[in-house]
């Protein structure tokens, strides 16, 4: 079992949260915390007429958009790799057939 570590993060002006994570995931979690806080700060300054909860909703929606976009790209890449693998297998079988007919 991998080593785990307890870390504390703070998102915007919300109470601090404790997370129990795998040690090798700490940097990813810290970077995510920073990106969320950076976007929250930027949008809080830009949209100073909005309530903090509205800004947080906008931030959550933006990250959900990014996640969905990446999920779609991964799906497309998987299909492309599957097609490539099938083409490669077909080519290898053709080459093997040529080699066997030479014998």
Describe the structure.
This protein has one domain (4-102). Strands 1-2 form a two-stranded antiparallel sheet. The longest helix has 51 residues, at 52-102. The protein is elongated. It is mainly alpha-helical. The protein is built from 2 helices and 2 strands.
What keyword list fits this structure?
103 residues, mainly alpha, two-stranded antiparallel sheet, 2 strands, elongated
Radius of gyration: 24 Å
Judged by helices, strands and strand pairing, the structural class is mainly alpha
Number of strands: 2
Strand arrangement in the largest pleated sheet: 1-2
Molecular shape: elongated
Proportion of helical residues: 55-70%
Weakly predicted, low-confidence segments: none
- Note the beta-strand portion: 5-15%
Q: H/E series, N to C?
A: EEHH
First-last Cα distance: 53 Å
What's the number of helices? 2
Main sheet attributes: strand count, strand direction, barrel closure: 2 strands, antiparallel
User: What is the count of distinct domains?
Assistant: 1
Question: What value does the average pLDDT take?
Answer: 94
């Amino acid at each position: 079992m991998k080593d785990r570590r307890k870390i504390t993060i703070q998102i915007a002006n919300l109470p601090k949260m404790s997370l129990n994570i795998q040690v090798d995931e700490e940097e990813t979690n810290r970077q995510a915390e920073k990106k969320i806080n950076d976007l929250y700060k930027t949008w809080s300054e830009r949209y100073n007429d909005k309530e903090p909860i509205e800004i947080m909703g906008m931030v959550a929606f933006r990250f959900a958009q990014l996640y969905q976009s990446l999920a779609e790209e991964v799906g497309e890449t998987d299909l492309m790799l599957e097609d490539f693998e099938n083409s490669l297998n077909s080519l290898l079988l053709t080459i093997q057939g040529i080699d066997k007919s030479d014998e």
